[in-house]
Design brief:
Number of strands: 2
CATH topology of the largest domain: Growth Hormone, Chain: A
Helix content: over 70%
Largest sheet: 2 strands, antiparallel
CATH class of the largest domain: Mainly Alpha
CATH superfamily of the largest domain: MFS general substrate transporter like domains
CATH architecture of the largest domain: Up-down Bundle
Structural class: mainly alpha
Length: about 525
């Protein structure tokens, strides 16, 4: 087999970890509507069901690197695959909220490990001339996994409502959310099996002194004349790292690093504080707030995944052509505009239940309980949803809120769809990929690993908080105010980017260190 095809096959197999990560993170978007009613969750508990995965993923990101140095990249990726499968099975079988959160947190360990180790392994086994393309498979698979989660959620919902005997036999109608979560078991098993057909990392073998096996593996995927040079370079790098003085955490806060560390922290916060994971993890909920109903909201969530995929590919194509700063400026400008558009759309909405628009609602809803709401005008979603709770009670309100919003709302849902897709496109071509590129370029070599870990930890912490409080924000602040806040953060971030972010395109790491690090 052609060496290039062989290494591509290995990279694609290992990059399935990225697909599982994207799937595991986004599949919860289709689940929240059902578990909120079934487990009678508060909005903060609902946020915990979503954000708990990010919490343990952050922990796994911190420890998976050292563990992989000890036990091997391939071994730790297999453990991640097992964690994905365990999480999927126990999430699907969860008898209560606590069990579901614990199962999701187990999956988070797999997410954090694969996020760090899959690209690390691919980079270590790929020849230099195709390394960038091979590593990009992982990021691409993350985006594909997000899209796949939206798509399979929709299919399970449709099949569950189809009335088909096979769908009823599988319980797709009664246990729809459990199937959404449990479906991940299949790709997890495939991933675990596939990892038995990939070799160990040559760099890890050399770290462990196993030069013979490392050379044997490298000869399968590299030109013979290049292998010896690569082996010498790796061994020299390993010895150099062993001799290096250990970098202390306090070194990050030395005056010379103030500028680059400030840029890193601000971009890490900005990437999450503008609400991207609110959209990825709560997409159907957001679309339901525009009154289109549950089925249509799942369809539109698929469009979110497709948009993210297309514009991520464009970002990969454009980042070296147009530069990092222009992509950030145009992308964050788009984010601000789209968030203000969403705030305007939801702020313009009015809500009114009438005898006429109540004729099509579910027979399970006691219309007499809603009599006090008939022909009453509500100018905000917060007032309308509060009235529903007072009329039906918290549990019934959670179950039928979407249906009643669809019946009573007066707004332009196309405006909301346009705003969300525009936001995702703007993010995917800017803050999504550009942040990690900047992190790899801004920090000097001596502290790069520690600095990226530090700003990555901040990024994950903000992501956790955004996911946790989003349902509470919608319930207490309303859609318009929530998206307005995201838009204002984007404007502040845009001002920072224009004034403070340097262009790093076509500059060596040594040039950037000379320009940005003040001695």
């Amino acid at each position: 087999m052609d060496k290039k095809k062989s290494i591509t096959g290995i990279a694609l197999t290992v990059a399935l970890g990225g697909l599982l990560m994207g799937f595991d993170a986004s599949v919860i978007s289709g689940v929240i509507k059902f578990i909120e009613a079934e487990f009678e969750l508060t909005k903060i508990e609902l946020g915990w069901a979503v954000s708990s995965l990010t919490l343990t993923a952050t922990l796994a990101m911190m420890v998976s690197g050292p563990l992989s140095d000890r036990y091997g990249r391939r071994t730790m990726l297999r453990i991640a695959a097992v964690l994905y499968a365990i999480s999927a099975i126990f999430s699907a079988l969860a008898p209560n909220f606590i069990a579901l959160v614990i199962a999701r947190m187990v999956g988070g360990l797999g997410v954090g490990a694969s996020l760090i180790l899959a690209p690390m392994y691919i980079a270590e086994i790929s020849p230099a001339k195709i390394r960038g393309r091979m590593v990009s498979f992982n990021q691409l698979n993350i985006v594909i996994g997000i899209s796949l989660a939206f798509f399979t959620n929709y299919l399970i919902l449709v099949f569950g409502q189809s009335g088909a005997p096979w769908a009823k036999a599988l319980g797709l109608d009664i246990y729809n959310w459990r199937w959404m979560l449990g479906l991940e078991t299949l790709p997890a098993v495939i991933y675990f099996t596939g990892l038995f057909f990939v070799p160990r990392s040559p760099r890890w073998l050399l770290m462990k002194g196993n030069t013979e096996d490392a050379i044997s593996i490298m000869r399968k995927y590299n030109d013979p004349q290049q292998v010896e040079a690569d082996i010498q370079a790796i061994e020299l790098s390993i010895k150099s790292e062993e001799k290096k003085e250990k970098v202390r955490f306090g070194d990050l806060f030395k005056p010379a690093l103030t500028l680059v560390l400030t840029i890193g922290i601000v971009i890490a916060i900005l990437q999450q504080i503008t609400g991207i994971n609110s959209v990825f993890f709560y997409a159907p909920m957001i679309f339901e707030q525009s009154g289109i109903g549950t089925d249509a909201s799942f369809v539109q969530a698929i469009l979110v995944g497709i948009t993210n995929l297309v514009f991520t590919i464009l970002a990969i194509a454009f980042i070296d052509r147009f530069g990092r700063k222009p992509l950030l400026i145009y992308g964050v400008t788009g984010i601000a505009i789209c968030m203000f558009l969403l705030a305007y759309g939801f702020n313009s909405a009015t809500y009114k239940l009438t005898e006429e628009n109540m004729t099509g609602i579910s027979a399970d809803i006691d219309k007499d309980q809603l009599s006090s709401m008939i022909n009453v005008n509500y100018d905000s979603d917060v007032e309308f949803k509060q009235a529903i709770k007072e009329s039906l009670g918290t549990v019934k309100a959670a179950e039928y809120e979407s249906e009643l919003i669809k019946a009573g709302i007066n707004m332009n849902p196309t405006l909301i769809l346009f705003g969300i897709l525009g936001f995702v496109a703007s993010f995917a071509i800017s803050l999504g990929p550009v942040m990690w590129v900047l992190f790899s370029e801004l920090f000097p070599n001596r502290v790069r690993g520690l600095a990226i870990s530090f700003v990555g930890l901040i990024n994950s912490a903000v992501s956790f908080l955004v996911q946790l409080v989003f349902p509470w924000e919608l319930d207490n602040l309303g859609n318009a105010t929530t998206f307005l806040i995201y838009g204002l953060f984007a404007v502040a971030g845009l001002a920072f980017i224009v004034k403070m972010i340097p262009e790093t395109k076509n500059k060596t790491l040594e040039q950037l260190e000379k320009e940005l690090i003040k001695n």
